[in-house]
Amino acid sequence: MATNIQSTLESLHDRYRPLNTGAVATYIPELTKADPDLFCIAVRFVDGTGFTIGDTDARFTLQSCSKPLILAQALSTVGRDMVMRLTGVEPTGNSFSSMVGLDQIGKPLNPMVNAGAIVTASLLPGDSPEDRYERMRTNLSAYLGSDAQLDAAVYDSELRTSDRNRALAYLLKSKGTIEGDVKQHLDLYIRQCAISANTQQLANAAATLANNGVNPVTGKRAVSAEYIKDILVVMLMNGMYNYAGRWAYEVGIPAKSGVSGSIFGVVPGVMGIAVYSPRLDDYGNSTRGLAVFRDLSKRYNMHIFDQRGPK
Ligand code: GLN
User: 161 in ligand 1 pocket by Cβ < 6 Å?
Assistant: First the structure.
């Protein structure tokens, strides 16, 4: 079994390494420094076994992959009703940093786009900015299965260039959807995006969601089982931005991508999968990541609505 899984990963890695379409994100200057050829695939099963291939030591920032994990912390802090009141679960059909509709509707459509994630960051608990950050970092560590570290260079770079997120945040404050110190909330949001991980750690996070909220490596609970379906539905409907419909159709695995080039996907009750490769398509999704997930889903009947079940 183990040999089969490792050789599957090897064949996927060999098959998609030549795929060089797409481009590394440039709107956060520090991200342009990523080596575009980096490529790693990792899986973690709910029994705790893990497999990985490629650039296993490569580290990247979570970026939007942090969003479902912060949504989970917001749900645990203020509850489902409040989160639903301030954001929603509807796909936007627009890019992840879009402002379309925000002025009219007054709240983001879901917590996987930037506006929605800034709202969930604003709900994170703590007595001071340091305390809020520390609690968020502890929360992310529980998913990754290791002490989460901030990539200071990416954090500084995004802080200096995030005028668009700033605009979204102040608009939301003017609508009453965000309360309190906008600058502090934004800082927290930018920090969550700048937490770094390797691919196996990201697969651990996916496996934690696949394992009803318990990290299968550490055996520690990261989130109450009560919220798992909330998080997975939001990931399936919105995790791949305005590609979400095609993704649900072709791949059918709740997943989230980030502009550093990572994608993590959850096969409930079975495993977590993560791919890292920095070249992105026009939607902001890793091109090799998409190819690997499409292939895996088809090869092993991983689509959650495929009633033949994973093989
Ligand atoms: N930090 C990035 C931003 O706010 C995250 C976006 C992403 O990964 N899609 O733009």
Answer: no
